[in-house]
Design goal:
heterodimer; A: about 150 residues; alpha+beta; DNA polymerase, domain 1; 2 domains; 5 helices; about 40% helix; B: about 775 residues; Aldehyde Oxidoreductase, domain 4; 7-stranded mixed beta sheet; 5-stranded mixed beta sheet; 27 strands; about 20% strand; 2Fe-2S-bd (chain A); 2 iron, 2 sulfur cluster binding (chain A)
Chain lengths: ~150, ~775
Amino acid sequence: MAVSFKLNGKPVTLEVDPEMPLLWAVREFAGLTGTKFGCGMAQCGACTMHVEGQPTRSCSMAVGDVEGQSVTTIEGLSGKAATAVQAAWENIQVPQCGYCQSGQIMSAVALLEQTPKPNDEDINAAMSGNICRCATYVRIRAAIHSASDMMEG
Amino acid sequence: MPLDQNSPHDESLGASPGVSNVSRRGLLKGIVAVGGLVLAARILPPGPSVAQTAAYGAAAMPHGTVNAPSAFISIGKDGIVTIVCHRSEMGQGVRTGMPQIVADELEADWNKVRVVNATGDEEKYGNQDTDGSRSTRHFMKPMREAGAAARSMLEMTAAKRWGVEPGEVEARNHEIVHKASGRKFGYGELAEEAASLEVPANDELRLKTPDQFRYIGKGLPLADGFDISVGKAKYGFDTWMEGMKYAVVARPPVFGGKVVSVDDSEALKIPGVEKIVRIEGTPAPAKFQPLGGVAVIASNTWAAMKGRDALKITWDDGPHKSYDSEAFRQQMLETARKPAKVVRDDGDAETELGKAAKKIEAEYYLPHLAQAPMEPPAATTRIVDGKCEVWSCVQAPQVTRTDIAEKLGMKLEDVTVHVTLLGGGFGRKSKPDFAIESAILSKEMGGAPVKLLWTREDDIRHGYYHTVSAERIDAGLDANGKVTAWRHRSVAPTITSIFMPDTKHQGAFELGMGLVDVPFDIPNLRCENGEAEAHARIGWFRSVSNIPHAFAIQSFVAELAAAAGKDQKDFLLELLGPPRVAELKSLDTLWNYGESTKVYPVDVGRLRHVVELVADKAGWGRQVPKGHGLGIAAHRSFVTYVATVVETAVAEDGTLTIPRVDVAIDCGNVVNPERIRAQVEGACIMGLSLALSSEISFKDGRVVQGNYDDYLVARIDQAPREINVHIVPSNWDLAPGGVGEPGVPPFAPALTNAIFAATGKRIRTLPIGDQLKA
């Protein structure tokens, strides 16, 4: 069976079981490994992609459900918020091991696209689905504020 | 800096560095017989006489240290310097810090430095076990020497070409300059000739003085920061190669269990499932070997998982099937109420306790924990033409290599272990059972590449758990509230049990993590260690036994302070006594993190200093709003001194928040202050997780929890609003201390002491869970 959708702006057709989670389809059939596996049950956010612009836990969404839709992964991020977030992540040296950070960045970009001036509560609400076991949370908050400032400037 | 992952992804296949030709099989067999190479140093450290005479603990590690510049540094004709990082990167920043040290002494331009990770090869690189907070501690000196030696070779080459004395030339930012004439050679122009020179002896090296450092002491950005931010960083989970198969394993639900029978007919019907393989379990001791079970090998991960779900397996649960955490807790607390093996005995604590004007006792309990790194264990192995190659997120590539060679019956030189980035480690990935599984499965598939993945449930249910402990402390106070006697009984299954299954006492390396090395100025001080049997695999977890020991001791100090009507911080300082090198009298078991007490004494002055520093920075004693409280704790671990002040706020409904944390850390000297800050921030929140909510419990021998929905770790909304890390400035007369772990132990007691200050409620059992809501 095949599923067709737009991946990082390009049309793709993957020969996969439509029930396969989007995460595994993208990692193993489209060859993009920037999106990570962490829990398999939408608990940790490591697998966050944007589906039609919405942050989505790709471990718990069937690839068949994105038929015809637009999917963005960390490799395909672009735009003002993405540029600001990725720069802030480097400037503030957010990552430690880095494994969860693509998911963190995807969630942060989605937050800033919808709420360009978030306060700490907005950040906590938008980011609490993304676990970081190295616990870079204090820097994540700071980096989101910094990215928000960059977008303004 | 770009990243060479040694990952087989795309074109980098086959680009692996060479493998040592030296066979050590005879030697290894002798050591493996007592439980694996790592055992020699980590579990059964040399007696104090050896440790005391070694200049650094590094010398006592398997294969010690290497400072040969040829092993670590290569310079291309284009001047690009490639530095080998032989320690595993798991978020601690070692791929930034180690090259920073080398590049500084080499006088290299940081923009022309590249980093590659070493394969597992300790003869070439020295010890590679990335644990014990010792990468910088053990390798600062060898890395400085390697960089200085290479710099000296470049200088000599240039001097020879110009026909001048070596003293007339000087290395300056990737160039050798003739000082008088200003003539220059770039490193790339000199490299080939320089490499043919003899490496200067250590005593001929001209190491920089600290004021000459350009990179050491600076918060240089992460080597892999850019790759991480764009999703290009490659971890063990991300290995890919042509024709690769994917595998998951159904493991015995109870430790020590076995497969009785398996019906795989439904599993084999799943499209993509290719083969079902039984993996033999490992009779005790567990060591780093696979638990056994049934593997499903498929053309993709999803198919492998579905195949595993479809297996019908009958298990024999084996000897640990009735392990029950609640019953075990009662048993351990009972043990802690009775006299036990004495492991330190100053003065006469028993008699003085009997005579004391006031007696206070308390019992503490801390559960098992799982490291739960965000990247679960993963490894890919292929075997081609008699050569086995493994790509994995391992903390100990060398023992991975020896164990796989042993398991496959191959020569050591025919096994290469490539270290990917680790998506967190925290001790879990020191044990390469998962890499051995992948090698077994590749062999079963005729050498085809097999990527073996652990799901989160596998990680939570089949781990090497942080021990579970009961700690009881009894103290006697005189009429003035001064502590005259202290008796601490610690009961916890030991990590040694994975090597010697009947071991029921903690090893010296566990007792030395905060129990027998407590540096209090109390004349009558006794430590005892009660028996506890292990019913699960026990393993290292970031800061290890320091967690229960520090929690009990630092909580109890605050309890005593409250009983004596004194300030927590003042009382802590009073117990520590005057600044001095603590003479720990009954210390034939003192481990001291494998280090000499001459180089790394237990320096009470430094511990006092971090207490005073953090109290000052945190505004100790300041007025806090209603419902808020301040708590303090201090602990020396991994030869580094840390004191933590937590401000907590407890709402009427018991909801807890943390407005502010201050930490003072004295790790001797500083390579990268940003990495130190980051490690301390992370350590605090790992301490927060275990204080608030993390618990692994067993029922009928099975782990109750399974994923992040019931094994709870801290999320951003629980994280402190601010964490201020105060680093004691470098003292280059001191040897470097550890950084990755020492921030963890003081956090939980500082928090529970703050909760007591805020609410009057004393937490003696972790996690806190809903105790504040009761």
